[in-house]
C-alpha cells in the first residue's frame, strides 16, 4: 500500500462539515476502507470537525484544517482548529443522559482505533487513526 498525505481547509461554518466528511471518505476508500469501517470513519470525522467548528473556532473567519494520510498500515485524520484548547483529561467518560451534547469524543473513541487530543499551540488537534483492513 502506498503512503500518502493530503490536506485541505474549510471555513469554520457548520454547512462545511458535509464537505469535510465527503473529502475524507474519498481518501479512506483510497486507503482500502469499505462498509462499516468507512461509515465509522465518516461519523468520527464529522464529530471531530463539528467540535472544531463549534468549540475551536473563535470567529466567523476561522478555518479548520484537515490532514489525512496513510502511514504504516494506518489511516489517520487530523483535525486542527484555531481555538484556545482544553485539557483532554477533563473529558467526561460516563454518559449523561440528560445532556444535549457531549458525546462526540466518546463516539470518536468508540469508532476509531485511536484518538489523540492535544493542544498544538495555535489550537486543538484531534488525531483519529484506524488500521487498514486486511486485503
Q: What is the CATH topology classification name?
A: Heat Shock Protein 90
- CATH homologous superfamily title: Histidine kinase-like ATPase, C-terminal domain
The average pLDDT is 87
Structural class call reads: alpha+beta
Overall helicity? 25-40%
- What is the end-to-end distance? 10 Å
Overall 3D form = globular
DSSP helix count? 3
Low-confidence stretches: 97-101
The proportion of strand residues reads 25-35%
Radius of gyration: 14 Å
Q: Please report the total strand number as a whole number.
A: 5
State the order of secondary-structure elements, H for helix, E for strand: EHHEEHEE
CATH architecture: 2-Layer Sandwich
What number of structural domains do the residues give?
1
CATH class (first level) name = Alpha Beta
Please outline what is shown here.
This protein is of the alpha+beta class. It has one domain: Heat Shock Protein 90 (2-Layer Sandwich). It is built from three helices and five strands, in the order βααββαββ.
Amino acid at each position: 500500500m502506498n503512503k500518502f498525505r493530503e490536506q485541505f481547509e474549510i471555513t469554520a461554518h457548520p454547512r462545511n462539515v458535509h464537505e469535510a466528511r465527503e473529502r475524507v471518505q474519498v481518501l479512506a476508500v483510497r486507503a482500502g476502507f469499505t462498509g462499516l469501517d468507512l461509515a465509522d470513519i465518516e461519523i468520527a470525522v464529522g464529530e471531530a470537525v463539528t467540535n472544531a467548528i463549534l468549540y475551536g473556532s473563535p470567529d466567523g473567519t476561522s478555518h479548520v484544517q484537515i490532514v489525512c494520510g496513510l502511514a504504516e498500515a494506518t489511516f489517520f485524520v487530523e483535525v486542527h482548529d484555531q481555538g484556545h484548547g482544553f485539557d483532554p483529561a477533563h473529558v467526561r467518560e460516563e454518559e449523561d443522559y440528560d445532556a444535549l451534547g457531549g458525546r462526540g469524543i466518546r463516539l470518536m473513541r468508540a469508532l476509531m482505533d485511536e484518538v489523540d487530543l492535544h493542544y498544538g499551540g495555535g489550537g486543538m488537534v484531534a488525531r483519529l487513526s484506524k488500521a487498514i483492513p486486511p486485503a
